[in-house]
Specification:
The chain has an eight-stranded parallel β-barrel, surrounded by ten helices. By secondary structure, the chain is α/β, with parallel strands linked by helices. Helix 2 packs across helix 13 and helix 3 crosses helix 4. It is globular and about 60 Å long. The protein has 13 helices and nine strands. 52% of the residues lie in helices and 14% in strands. It binds glyceraldehyde-3-phosphate, 1,3-dihydroxyacetonephosphate and zinc ion.
């Protein structure tokens, strides 16, 4: 059933687990996400970026997610990283049950003012709002403690921000970053910072850039890449380890965003199919295995995040 972010995260916060927020762009990804949620009896957040909206259109995305939400598990239809206020407003008007307004690149004052505006629009329609403060960037990129403190989320600034905006969930910067190249090797996250923010703001916290970039799937994608050409650059891919995710959840993370892991699973399966069956030209034979592999990835996340069995 379709529900709001506020509702699913309230339970996650109370019982110390996280709900996975998976990015979709098409039918196969959507079916993989909802299929896993049903199998795992897990609440789930299906989210679309502004890029997905541009690619597929809000009406198609809505039709797919609303169909998925007929399943007997809680489903949140969420806009990921809404930076353009026009897109955020359109999502609220189109039937998204939750939106992220991402003003993290703006000065605090502007981010706060825009987030307040979004909260006012959203409240009228019963839509939840996720907002962000801090710059999502890898800790390894900062050379000094001062530099790190200036970029990662500051607990006091976070408290002032949530009080001023009335948002329902807060995305924080604690060392993760988007994409497949997060760390040089081991995961480096600022767990103390997560705990300190949680202690002060006492609300659901969101971890972006949380893909694990499974070495096994990268290997499968890479083998094919090296034959087919252009993604040998996956060579230095490193994600957030499962152990780090479990620690982050214990310290108060309640929503975990995953996109890159689905992209890698999709690519690995499609490349394998095309390599193994040179005669394949039926899209269902090419995309079916990708859907199946993405389902397995999402199931693994739901078990890891502790949301399995909570629906
Ligand atoms: O956080 C970004 C997500 O991975 C979405 O990426 O803007 O390429 O759809 P995208
Ligand atoms: P990944 O690139 O780690 O999958 O992060 C996705 C994300 O944060 C979407 O908002
Ligand atoms: Zn993100």
């Amino acid at each position: 059933m379709l529900t709001t972010l506020k509702k699913v995260l309230a339970d996650a916060d109370r019982r110390t687990y996280a709900v996975g927020a998976f990015n979709t762009n098409n039918l196969e990804i959507t079916q993989a996400i909802i299929g896993a949620a049903v199998e795992m009896r897990s609440p789930v957040i299906i989210q679309t970026s502004e890029g997905a909206v541009e690619y597929a259109g809000m009406n198609y995305l809505k039709a797919m997610v609303y169909e998925a939400a007929k399943a007997k598990v809680p489903v949140v239809f969420h806009l990921d990283h809404g930076k353009d206020l026009k897109v955020v407003k359109a999502a609220i008007d189109h039937g998204y049950t939750s939106v992220m307004y991402d003003g993290s690149a703006l000065p605090d004052k502007e981010n706060t003012a825009n987030t307040r505006k979004v909260v006012a629009w959203a409240k009228k329609k019963g839509v939840s709002v996720e907002a962000e403060i801090g710059a999502i960037a890898g800790i390894e990129d900062f050379v000094s403690v001062e530099e790190k403190d200036a970029h990662l989320t500051n607990p006091e600034r976070a408290l002032a921000f949530v009080k001023a905006t009335g948002c329902d969930a807060l995305a924080i910067a604690v060392g993760t970053l988007h994409g497949a190249f997060k760390f040089k090797g081991e995961t480096v996250l600022d767990y103390e910072r997560i705990g300190a923010i949680k202690k002060l703001v006492k609300m659901p916290l969101v971890l972006h850039g949380a893909s694990g970039i499974s070495p096994e799937l990268v290997e499968r994608a890479k083998d094919r890449c090296s034959i087919l050409g252009d993604c040998a650059r996956l060579e230095n891919a490193h994600g957030v380890s499962d152990e780090a995710i479990a620690k982050a959840v214990k310290r108060g993370i309640n929503k975990i965003n995953i996109d890159s892991d689905l992209r890698i699973a999709f690519t690995a399966a499609v490349r394998e199919t095309l390599m193994n069956d040179k005669k394949a030209f039926d899209p269902r034979k090419i995309l079916g295995p990708a859907r199946a592999l993405m389902t397995e990835v999402v199931k693994h996340k739901m078990a890891l995040f502790g949301s399995a069995g909570k629906a």
